[in-house]
């Protein structure tokens, strides 16, 4: 063996596992052990049975259990391994690159095991040693020294690879266009996307270990949640979402924002609080206030709208004051909550849907009502086409989504004589109409945002410095 090409290792060394997002790790080199091992936790498989992946987490810095790096890799095998203390267990086996510095790297197989008592985060067995490697059992750290400083919050993203994510879509409509588009786009990127029926989730609520169960099993820890909660299950759906938030999982839209945006009265109060322009709106509970209520909004025609209406349902145009009073009386007779709103005549049955992702308008379409219907919803036969929006319309759409802290939103606005007016902020906007109109991959832009948020998972705050 040529001495100049020999790689010398001590019994303890600095290595890197760049494929796993671990640029620095201390390992024990043990030629008495056949198999290499990485001491990880939260080990679980995901993805299709034909090509399973495993995800796990590791504390790469000794005595720093507050610092967690999430990893994922393809499963290449599952083997029975006997440790030095005689314990036998079945372990998942992955293949990854071992970086020994100075341009020396090679693929190795590593087993995953949860053994929190081990002082070394990695054990390098003899199977992982190339022919040009010599182990000096009385020496330590013969390879170039590395620093744990790389795991600081400012530097970690630059060294972390794009790992596969496990994502949950909360939806009761797995066959809808929007849900299928999200699943397809995620899987195209190598992620595992699971559709979970919100109403079949049930929760264990406690201070130490809150859990979410589904069909008799505890749900795994997801990297991100994409809520597609229907209007009929808003209350229970947001309760489930709050449980995910309690677990510290990233949710594209939070429970508070969804709840506020679904209640049209609450939503208009939020918009007003942020000084965002909207049609004049009024609300009252007492039938004695009907005339005054109409007077606050202005003269007919008026819009009478149920507080939790969706897709144009529960929205009525009253063309005269008498008609408005009749509609209001009818809604009150049904004990329904509603509001009265000024009708913007100059909009002529058109509105603008702005699709907002991560604080940016990524697409916009003009929707026009069908026939004499004043409602432009595509579900009611309206048509859509891509359109350009003004800087003021863009600013208001972004501001409206931020008012509800929504990472994904459909913001509807009208073009009036005195500027744009926000009609609604939708926390579960449909993808089909606006993707067809704009010819843009909006599901892809959603995943760009998710990947930016959870690759790597946010590091936990700590006072202790690396």
From TrEMBL:
An annotated GO cellular component: cytoplasm
Statement: the UniProt record of this protein carries the keyword Isomerase: no
Domain ATP-grasp, first and last residues per copy: 268-451
SUPFAM superfamilies to which the protein is assigned, alphabetical: Acid proteases, Glutathione synthetase ATP-binding domain-like
Keywords: ATP-binding, Ligase, Magnesium, Manganese, Metal-binding, Nucleotide-binding, Protein biosynthesis
One Gene Ontology biological process: translation
Cofactors, names only: Mn(2+); Mg(2+)
Keyword Transcription regulation: no
NCBIfam families: PRK10446.1, rimK_fam
Official protein name in the record: Probable alpha-L-glutamate ligase
Record lineage: Bacteria, Pseudomonadati, Pseudomonadota, Alphaproteobacteria, Rhodobacterales
